[in-house]
Specification:
The protein has 326 residues and is an alpha/beta fold. It is 45% helix and 14% strand. The protein has one domain (10-318): Metal-dependent hydrolases (TIM Barrel), CATH 3.20.20.140. The strands form 2 sheets. Strands 1-2-3-4 form a 4-stranded parallel β-sheet, with helices on both faces. A 4-stranded parallel β-sheet has the order 5-6-7-8. Strand 5 (190-193), helix 9 and strand 6 (212-215) form a beta-alpha-beta unit. Zinc ion binds next to strand 1. This is adenosine deaminase.
Length: 326
């Protein structure tokens, strides 16, 4: 039996690169690039009322993430933070189209981020993969061209795709053909859905081929929908602190963890955005422990089970299970 959260080997499947780069590195990059940042805009305000408001923090952070050097260093920085949470496998997600403001092209962006992954693996020993986010608010042709590029690049580190950004104005049916474009190319799909109260978006996302759902909390009180998720082998990537800040949930009881645990509905706890949300993975689990919503034993079990839902090849999965998750 593990004695504390830190002892438990963990998996993290929902962590955004831009929202998780540490405040220290953001400030360092801003100084180097002579960019004046409004520091209070980097983290979510206590009065945040919605996902749209939460997403505004990214505008400030993205100002310093427009060079190849900053992208590479950001990846190493985020993976090191995960290492201090005793994470053994992480899928870091990023949206290439948000790093083009100063002229970087897709190839330069991918070369920088992939170099960051290589450096992060070499320094930490953690297994790292990338999820590539299309942005819901982008033109359809931009997103489909991104998936075409991904197919051509065939990166050893890209393990799947996602659609991030404002969910309410861009529900799954409005981006259906773009989603299909990615799925038809054979990419593993996880989708942000059910973060703004709409249960229908979660079920639509599954219908469109999502193997995992980012957040999904809109269905957490609906036993029928949860049983459907279980039957289809879908994992819910939940991010409790972020969900409270965006008002996706009113409080932690809305996660309905006791039902999920009792019924063995697949889910995992994640940070979402370590800096914007001001959290770590250990902190997320501590919060749930303090409220008696989960036990250390259950935390160990959900992390071990999550490997089955990670976007890994069979051999990588076996390696992580037997070598990293003990
Ligand atoms: Zn997210």
């Amino acid at each position: 039996m593990k004695k504390c959260i830190q002892d438990i080997s963990k998996v993290e499947l929902h962590c955004h690169l831009d929202g998780s780069i540490s405040s220290d590195l953001i400030k360092q990059l801003a100084a180097e690039q002579q960019i004046a940042l409004i520091e209070e805009n980097l983290i979510v305000s206590e009065s945040c009322e919605s996902l749209d408001e939460y997403l505004q923090c990214f505008d400030e952070i993205l100002k310093v993430l427009q060079t190849a050097d900053s992208l590479k260093r950001a990846v190493v920085d985020v993976v090191k933070q995960a290492e201090s949470d005793n994470v053994k496998y992480i899928e870091v997600r990023f949206a290439p189209m948000l790093h083009m403001e100063k002229g970087l092209g897709l190839t330069e962006i991918f070369e920088a981020v992939e170099a960051g992954v290589e450096a992060a693996i070499a320094t930490t020993g953690i297994k790292v993969n990338l999820l590539v986010c299309a942005m819901r608010q982008q033109e359809a042709t931009v997103n489909t061209a991104l998936f075409d590029y991904l197919q051509q690049r065939d990166s050893q580190f890209v393990c799947g795709i996602d659609f991030a950004g404002p969910e309410a104005p861009f529900p799954p049916n409005t981006i259906e053909s773009q989603i299909e474009h990615g799925v038809n190319k054979g990419f593993n799909l996880t989708l942000h859905a059910g973060e703004c109260g709409c249960m229908h978006n979660v079920m639509e996302s599954i219908r469109l081929g999502a193997k995992r759902i980012g957040h999904g909390v809109a269905i957490n009180r609906d036993e029928l929908a949860l049983q459907e998720v279980k039957a289809q082998g879908i994992l819910l990537e939940m991010c409790p602190k972020s969900n409270i800040q965006t008002k996706a949930i009113r409080d932690l009881s809305d996660l309905n963890l006791s039902y999920l645990l009792k019924e063995e509905i697949p889910f995992l706890i994640n940070t979402d955005n370590r800096t914007v949300t001001q959290t770590s993975l250990n902190e997320e689990y501590e919060l749930l422990l303090q409220h008696n919503l989960i036990t250390l034993e259950q935390i160990e079990t959900i992390n071990k089970n999550a490997i089955d839902y990670a976007f890994l090849s069979d051999s990588e999965r076996r390696y992580i299970k037997s070598n990293l998750m003990s």
